[in-house]
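About this split. The held-out portion is used to measure sequence recovery: a designer receives only the structure tokens and must propose an amino acid at every position. Recovery is the fraction of positions where the proposal matches the reference. Here is one held-out target exactly as it appears in the evaluation file.
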């Protein structure tokens, strides 16, 4: 399911499936994109930041057209203890690889990978970023 911002409308709460992963998409070419994500973060329960949130940054292959400083994006990942994935949607191979990574993160956060919890996965991603 896709939403352009949070909070989600409450009138359909009873029909909404369980949310296992929230992917915040940031378009590197749009300052509005980052501001929208920052505003939406306030509506996410703090428990989701334990392996159930990630930031997907699109347009990273177009450095000349950036409207957002990457430091601001890395800071979001650091502050919210959530992984930051970089993607160039215009490249088929990168797009497919990113989709596979997101699917794997979703499987882990939904509890479908034996022996790996979302919290443990979040710590692993964090350690990988820090190295």
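Reference sequence for scoring:
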């Amino acid at each position: 399911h896709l939403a352009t911002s949070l909070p989600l409308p409450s009138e359909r709460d009873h029909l909404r499936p369980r949310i296992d992963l929230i992917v915040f998409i940031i378009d590197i070419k749009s300052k509005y994109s980052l501001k929208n994500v920052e505003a939406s973060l306030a509506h996410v329960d703090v428990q989701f930041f334990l392996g159930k949130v990630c930031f997907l940054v699109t347009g990273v292959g177009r450095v000349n057209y950036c409207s957002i400083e990457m430091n601001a994006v890395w800071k979001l990942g650091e502050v919210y203890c959530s992984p930051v994935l970089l993607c160039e949607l215009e490249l088929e191979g990168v797009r497919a690889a990113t989709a596979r990574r997101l699917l794997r993160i979703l499987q882990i956060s939904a509890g479908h990978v034996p022996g790996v919890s979302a919290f443990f996965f979040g710590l692993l991603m964090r350690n990988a970023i820090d190295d």
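Annotator remark: The first helix runs from residue 31 to 41.
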